């Protein structure tokens, strides 16, 4: 598949989320590029592209999800290999951007690691970034190259709208998620509520207040990422205290460890709605719906390749955008 610039489109992937990369390639009706990405006995990463990429438009699908450092190094080394093999343009497709929560100095003597990762990607040879639901919008400004930032909201909207949930209220589990929750509230023409919290430590939070009415209503609790599920389960607890009915949790990036899975089992939500931006596994005792982002990413890749606008991908319905 050649662009208007005459460069052939190729899609490659590291080991972070091969299943998603294959679905993207399948959506675009093309094979996933062949590459060897392995580890030496001492832990070093080895990369080799097993087909010609000279002069081509490369898209490398590699979310930097756990194991974060391993997946990040794979991406950097793949980019370096592609640059040295004379690829025309290299786009890093980051369905999930690790280190995104380290986006500012919120205490003395700490790094801004999200900016460091952006610098590393540019230094390795990335020409463009395609990301989804970044933890903070300002991360786009950390890059000195073009960034296309997509949102999972259209996918969530289609699924939730089909469920016809009555008396729906959108809730954010912390003040920082207010903008996202307001966007969802506008999409569904529903009520909006806010849970305020205080952080006890890196993995535990305590919800303290609820602003808004959830009494007798169904709730869609939205956040961009959860790892230990501390914020989510704390918010669920205060929502139950205020007599909310069914509680649905919508999170694009569910990067759950054992602690997070156990907490979700105990808080007994109606359904966890997430996506395959990172590899997902079944969580016993937690009703889960995994939505596929491959068509959205595939359409964005095609438009970038052909030099077309991607802004229409943000449209939920006529006149309403994320």
What does this molecule look like?
- By secondary structure, the chain is an alpha/beta fold.
- It contains eight helices and 18 strands.
- The strands form five sheets. The chain has a seven-stranded mixed β-sheet with strand order 10-9-8-11-13-15-16, with helices on both faces. A five-stranded parallel β-sheet has the order 1-4-5-6-7, with helices on both faces.
- Strand 4 (57-61), helix 2 and strand 5 form a beta-alpha-beta unit.
- Helix 1 (18-27) crosses helix 8 and helix 6 packs parallel to helix 7 (258-267).
- The mean pLDDT is 92.
Question: What distinguishing features does this structure have?
Answer:
322 residues, Rossmann fold, 2 domains, seven-stranded mixed β-sheet, five-stranded parallel β-sheet, globular
**Roughly what is the average pLDDT, rounded to an integer?**
92
Spatial strand arrangement across the major sheet: 10-9-8-11-13-15-16
CATH architecture of the largest domain: 3-Layer(aba) Sandwich
What overall geometry do the principal axes of the alpha carbons give? globular
Domain count, please report it. Answer: 2
C-alpha-based Rg, rounded: 20 Å
**Could you give the order of the helices and strands?**
EHEEEHEHEEHEHEEEEHEEHEEHEE
Structural class: alpha/beta
Helix-residue proportion: 25-40%
Reading off the top of the CATH hierarchy, the class of the largest domain is best stated as Alpha Beta
What is the count of helical runs?
A: 8
Annotated CATH topology of the largest domain: Rossmann fold
């Amino acid at each position: 598949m050649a662009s208007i610039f005459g460069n052939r489109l190729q899609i490659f992937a590291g080991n972070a989320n091969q299943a998603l990369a294959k679905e993207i390639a399948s959506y675009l009706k093309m094979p996933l590029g062949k590459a060897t990405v392995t580890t030496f006995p001492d832990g070093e990463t080895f990369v080799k592209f097993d087909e010609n990429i000279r002069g081509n438009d490369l898209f490398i699908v590699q979310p930097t999800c756990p194991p974060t450092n391993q997946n990040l190094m794979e991406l950097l080394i793949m980019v370096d290999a592609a640059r040295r093999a004379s690829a025309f343009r290299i786009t890093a497709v980051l369905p999930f951007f690790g280190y995104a929560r380290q986006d500012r100095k919120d205490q003395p003597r700490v790094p801004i690691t999200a900016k460091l990762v952006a610098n590393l990607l540019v230094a390795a040879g990335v020409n463009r970034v395609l990301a989804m639901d970044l933890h903070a919008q300002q991360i786009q400004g950390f890059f000195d190259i073009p960034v296309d930032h997509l949102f999972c909201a259209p996918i969530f909207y289609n699924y939730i709208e089909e469920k016809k949930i009555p008396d729906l209220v959108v809730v954010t589990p912390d003040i920082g998620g207010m903008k996202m929750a307001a966007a969802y509230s506008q999409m569904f023409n529903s009520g909006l509520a806010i849970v305020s919290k205080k952080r006890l430590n890196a993995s535990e939070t305590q919800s303290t207040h609820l602003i808004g009415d959830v009494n007798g209503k169904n709730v869609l609790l939205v956040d961009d990422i959860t790892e230990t599920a501390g914020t989510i389960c704390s918010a669920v607890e205060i929502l139950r205290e205020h007599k909310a009915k069914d509680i649905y949790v919508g999170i694009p990036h569910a990067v759950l460890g054992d602690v997070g899975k156990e907490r979700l089992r105990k808080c007994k939500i109606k359904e966890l709605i997430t996506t395959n931006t990172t590899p997902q596994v079944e969580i016993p005792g937690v009703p889960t719906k995994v939505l596929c982002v491959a068509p959205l990413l595939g359409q964005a890749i095609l438009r970038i390749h052909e030099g077309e606008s991607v802004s229409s991908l943000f449209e939920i319905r006529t006149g309403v955008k994320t």
